[in-house]
């Protein structure tokens, strides 16, 4: 799993090297793209890109492990961002998406494909004058996997990203 995670991180990083960094910020917020880590119940990397002033795509590649199971998953989220007028740089957002990956039950040694339908609700903050973006969110999911189908409401996470 660690080798697969490192390979995925390398592929995403190399892909981003080819992106043209735009000096012009998207109207309404101070960045167009951001990449970094997501820390919480599941840990991994996250890449967010704005399609316009309000709509963004967030791609998360994460790994989650506990005493009963481990999951490696790629999640795509469509987010709608709304400004908080009293706090410049701070926006709240909501959205949804889906995930696909692998699942392993450590107790029975069963494994297979893992699918999920994901929601998201959070706060996004771009630090003024610094290329740092912070997001704190809740990402509940409905899982479909061998020995692990159900709803999980424990998906809280903090993302720390380099914004460009």
From TrEMBL:
Keyword entries, A-Z: Signal
Signal peptide from the UniProt entry: 1-25
Name the UniProt record assigns to this protein: Outer membrane protein beta-barrel domain-containing protein
The keyword Signal is assigned to this record: yes
């Amino acid at each position: 799993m660690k080798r697969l995670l490192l390979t995925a991180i390398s592929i995403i990083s190399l892909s981003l090297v080819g992106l043209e960094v735009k000096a012009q910020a998207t109207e309404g917020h101070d960045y167009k793209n951001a990449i970094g880590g997501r820390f919480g119940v599941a840990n991994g990397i996250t890449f967010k890109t704005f399609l316009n002033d309000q709509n963004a795509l967030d791609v998360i590649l994460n790994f989650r492990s506990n005493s009963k199971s481990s999951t490696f998953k790629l999640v795509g989220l469509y987010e709608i961002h709304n400004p908080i007028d009293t706090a410049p740089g701070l926006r709240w957002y909501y959205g949804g998406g889906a995930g696909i990956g692998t699942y392993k039950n450590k107790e029975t040694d069963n494994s297979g494909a893992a699918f999920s339908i994901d929601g998201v609700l959070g706060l996004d903050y771009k630090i003024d004058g610094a290329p740092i973006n912070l997001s704190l969110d809740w990402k509940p999911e409905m899982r479909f996997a061998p020995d692990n189908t159900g709803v999980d409401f424990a998906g809280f996470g903090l993302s720390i990203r380099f914004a460009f």
